[in-house]
Write a structure and sequence with these properties.
single chain; Glutaredoxin; binds glutathione; Glutathione_S-Trfase_N; Glutathione-s-transferase theta, gst
């Protein structure tokens, strides 16, 4: 189906929280029309939302162009969008082993960057007791993960995680690194990791990412409104 004739894909977000915005960057990159609905805290673990995502978290996605296909888990959703809509392979490799190496980075984002940085935020801002050992652990992990990316880029001498081509995996790292990192590690200076820093700057300069960062800012401001 031509992208120009697509109906908007529905994506469920939770204000500015990072995981859904990874998906939206991919939607923007591929030119797929989308609309979002922000699910409030009270609506996440109850019906009707848990019929969309039994895990009660965002994102969830409904694709009206494909019999209302309903998906959850941001990595699985991104895999779907790449399979179904990236027909020109703009954000993926079809060659071996690059296709599989891209998946390594995708899974590292899902299992490493997202959860560890999320825990840093939780122990810093939401856990009822101050637990310095937990804060220290996730702070160290956050820095280690930045170091993994920096050392890899340095060793490969490539601008992106897999060679010279930007892929969906690079883009998946943006919301946590660009927006969440300054909140959970306010004193961290990314210039300490020059390859990481240059990589991030290139990703952030993309128009899809600029569009999404502006929309996240709007969600952040909504959260600050009295009574919200
Ligand atoms: N592994 C899941 C994580 C989803 C997740 O943690 N979503 C957050 C927003 S970034 C959420 O819904 N938080 C609300 C909650 O945990 O109740 C994914 O990547 O989709």
């Amino acid at each position: 189906m031509a992208i120009s004739s697509l109906k908007p894909v529905k994506i469920y977000i939770h204000g500015p929280s990072p995981n859904p915005w990874k998906v939206i960057i991919i939607l923007e990159e591929l030119g797929i029309p989308w609309e979002s609905e922000s699910v409030p805290e009270t609506g996440l673990k109850t019906e009707p939302f848990i019929s969309l995502n039994p895990n009660g978290r965002t994102p969830a996605l409904i694709d009206p162009n494909n019999d209302g296909t309903t998906l959850w888990e941001s990595g699985a959703i991104i895999d779907y969008l790449i399979d179904v809509y990236d027909k020109d392979h703009t954000l993926q490799y079809t060659s071996f082993p690059e296709k599989h190496i891209t998946r390594c980075w995708e899974h590292f984002q899902m299992s490493g960057q997202g959860p560890y940085m999320g825990q840093k935020g939780f122990f810093m801002y939401f856990h009822p007791e101050k637990l310095p050992s937990a804060i220290e652990r996730y702070d160290k992990e956050t820095r280690r993960i930045i170091g993994v990316v920096d050392a890899h880029l340095s060793k490969q001498g490539t601008p992106y995680l897999v060679g010279d081509k930007v892929t969906y995996a690079d883009l998946m790292f943006v919301p946590y690194f660009k927006l969440f990192l300054p909140v959970i590690c306010p004193d961290l200076n990314t210039k300490e990791w020059p390859k990481f820093d240059a990589w991030q700057e290139k990703l952030v300069a993309r128009s899809s990412v600029q569009t999404v960062l502006a929309k996240i800012q709007v969600e952040k401001e909504k959260k600050k409104l009295p009574g919200k």
